Amino acid sequence: MRRYSIQNKIVLPFILLFAVVVLIVPVITIALFDRKYDEQNSLETQKWVQAIVDTGYIHEPEKVKEAYGAEVTIVSSDNTVNYTTLPGDWANFADEMRLHDIRERIMESNSDLVSQNVIVSGRHYKVLYYLQAYDRLYCLMRPMDKIADAKRDVTLLMLGIAVVVILLVAVISHLIGRNLTNPIKELVQFTQKVADGNLNEQCAVKTHDEIGDLTLAFNQMTRNLRNSRNELLSAERLATAGKMAASFAHEIRNPLSSMQMLAQMLMRKDNLSEARGKQSMQYILEEIQRVDVIVKGFMDFARPAALKAVSHNLNQVLQEVLDLMEANLNHHQITLVRKFTSHLPPISLDRDKLKQAFMNIVLNAMEAMPEGGILEILTLQDSDEVRIDVVDTGVGISPEDLNRLFEPFFTTKSQGTGLGLANAKRILEQHGGDIQSKSVVGQGTTMSLWLPLPSNPAPSDFNNIGE
To answer: How many domains does the chain have?
Structure first.
């Protein structure tokens, strides 16, 4: 459906209304005037003919022309011209004057006089036909050129006035419409800013009418919305802080308890062997390292650092992570299968952050295969992006848990902060990419990571995949 602005809806009806009025009224006026004048002219011409007959001038056409300024043509019963005061050859006079029709009209009207308006040789005439003896027609042709010119001039004048009036109405309607719609347009633009999230500005009130009242109401709504948003943000911050505090306390309690027990044991037993003491100290250091990892994960989630993107070979970055984890994979009896698309173009990425995200995903895949399995890593190139698939043959994820997999603090493990996948998703989104998952319980899970390619990537062969 076509959309019309309020200004057009205001202007167009006025223009159409006035156009109809100023065009139709003059046309009707001129038509009525022309009809009335034609009737008056016909009556006057009939009086001329009556006077010509009464005075005997009907037999003296030249005197009639001199006295009345009219032309005289006498036509015989066979419609041939017997005499005319018109100059030139009038062999086709009967056709131009439609004399056959005139004779029929005279017979039907039972009158000796019939009049009509004709154009002969480009000139306008009021012609009165008088039936004489022996069926001869006496044609008194009164010139009407001046009347026709006057009618044309009046028509053009009226049309000119109509055009001027329509233009004036259009201009005035446009000004009125603009005065009404400009505050509405400004309010619409302001609502767009509010829709984009800018709740700190107020729309200027420029009118003291219904539109001004609407603007005031919208400003009040914006203030209320801003206050509600601030309250919601505060509530969300408090809720997030509460979740982080609870999760942090839960995660750090176990390593702290272990360190406390080891420290108490070291203090109470003076006769501990050096080897047992070193082993206890090693356990304490491992627990401290575990606490450090937990704290670092929370800090990364709470205050993500800015990207340090540099052009890298994606396959090489992934291979570095897999090399670090190869021993761990072998220990858990997990077979690693690599299928990297060759000739990938360099991609702008933060090497450390992407390695961190990829490592979190591989660790999750390892934990999903406690009895061992197969871990398949693939890279595929599309027209404008690269996809990394991490496929495991683990226990899978239920549909209800799959929908919450990337939520902060959500975890299905007895130990874990629930921040690994949330951080991985945020890192991918910082790179302009995304991460999605699909899983079948008892069969395994596939994690798909997307990264955007440069604007002019090098061509790649999807079938050229090396293992």
So the answer is: 3
Separation between Cα atoms, residue 388 and residue 315, nearest integer Å: 10
User: What sign results for the dihedral spanned by CA atoms 191, 197, 203, 209?
Assistant: positive
Q: Is the pTM of this model over 0.90?
A: no
Clarify whether residues 297 and 321 are in a common domain.
no
Domain of residue 435: give its range: 310-466
267-310 pLDDT, tens per residue?
777 666 777 777 777 777 767 776 776 676 666 666 666 778 88
> What residues contact 305, with CB distance under 8 A and at least 6 apart?
353
- Asked whether residue 314 falls in the same domain as residue 399, the answer is yes
The Cα–Cα gap between 13 and 21 comes to 12
Judge if 279 and 330 occupy the same domain: no
Where residue 226 sits, what CATH number does that domain have? Answer: 1.10.287.130
Cα–Cα distance between 76 and 136 in angstroms, integer?
Answer: 5
Which residues of 345-384 form beta strands (DSSP E)?
A: 347-349, 373-381
Going 267 to 268 to 270 to 272, the CA torsion angle's sign is negative
Distance CA 467, CA 319 (A): 12
17 and 103 belong to one structural domain: yes
- Domain for residue 195, yes or no? no
Residue-wise DSSP of 37-81: HHHHHHHHHHHHHHHHHHHTGGG-HHHHHHHH--EEEEE-TTS-E
Where is the domain boundary, 302, 321, 350? 302
Residues 250 and 316 in one domain: no
Q: At what angle do helices 210-268 and 274-302 cross, to 10 degrees?
A: 180
Quick check: helix, strand or coil at residue 347? strand
